[in-house]
Each structure stands twice: as structure tokens, then as C-alpha cells.
Amino acid sequence: MSAEPIPVNRTALLIVDLQNDFLHPDGAYGRAGQGAPEIAELPEKLKPLADALRARGGWVVSTQFTLVPAKRGEPIISPHLRQLRPFLTHGDFEPGSWGHALVDTLQPADLSVEKVAYSAFYMTRLEWVLRKCGIEKLLVGGIVTNGGVASTVRDAHVRDFDVTVIEDGSAAFSPATHKTAIEALRPVCRVADIATLVAEVSAA
Asked: What is the rounded distance in angstroms from the CA atom of residue 27 to the CA atom of residue 43?
């Protein structure tokens, strides 16, 4: 983490996977009965932080899990994911679709990046766009804490971004899993809550 304060205009809320196909009742996970109250609450909880950053010249960056369509539009699904989520099918998390999009509550994003694995940095243009836009500090929230959030935070850390994981702005499919993941991240990043970050951004 940086010894010097990083200005808000070089700071981004990095939203991991808060997409309609994950959160909306009509999305891929909703139709399959997959979800958790803590996950459903995240957009409204994160909105004040997103609004504070926008008001102060900061950034809102959305990373969106993607199932790339191949022949006849059939999605490319990794074997481990197909085993975990056998309900995923044609059209789910397809680029440009309603399900693939960031949820309305947190729109608009200043930057959007498709991702194909847990980490938003793995084989994506995320680092390139962050560097080009002068973004040095990342406030990371989204889903799931033990998957996309943790992997993205660790990859940001090794790339020398000043990174904070938002404890109450992230969630997993169980509170216990979330808590374990947050504790495991403490050695590699700052852990803060939304109220603290909103106050810091507003005072900057």
C-alpha cells in the first residue's frame, strides 16, 4: 500500500460480478434458486460509495463474468464450473445480454471489463485500462468474497495497486465463508467498511 494518500481521481470502486444473471430473480442464478440475502443486498449497500466517488471525480469500474459463446452460440464453460453450476446454459452471461450487464442500481460504470475466471485480471484488459486511466487505488467489492473478490484483490496486490477490500461490500453464499475469506485477505490488503470509505472519499 502507498505511503502517500492517493487522490480520489486516481481511485476506483472495482465492482466484481454484480450482474443481472447473478442477482436478479430472472437471471441465470435466480431461475435456478441460487443466491443469498447478503448477495442480494450488495447493490444498495455499495451505491452510496459509488455515488460519492462519482461526485468527487473518482471511478466506477465493473468487471463482468462472461461465458463466451462458441459454435451455435453454445457457451464455453470450464469443467469445474459446469460441475458446480450445471444449470448454466445457452445465453447465460453472454456478452451484450441483459443478464451479463451490471445491475441497474450501480449503473453507469465508467469502465467495464469482461472476465472469464475468478480474477478480473486473468487474461483481461483490466490492468491496461486502469493504467491508461491513471487509476492507482482500488476499492474492491462484489461476489463472491472467496472467489472473484479474493482472486482479484490478490492479483491487484501483486501488481502494486493500493487495494482495499470492502468488508460489508462483498458477500459469499454463507456468512462463515465470507468471514474466513476476509480474514485471509488481511495480510495482503486493507480491510474497510463502506461508511469509512464514503467518509474518506467525501472528505478528500
From this structure: 15
C-alpha cell of residue 49: 460509495
Residues 6+ apart with CB under 8 A from 44: 105
Is the pTM of the predicted complex or chain greater than 0.70?
A: yes
In 137-161, which positions are buried (b, 16+ CB within 10 angstroms) versus exposed (e)? bbbbbbbbbbbbbbbbbbbbbeeeb
For 104-144, what is each residue's pLDDT tens digit?
999 999 999 999 999 999 999 999 999 999 999 999 999 99
| CATH C-level class of 8-64+101-203 | alpha beta
The three cell numbers locating residue 65: 463474468
d(CA 79, CA 52): 40
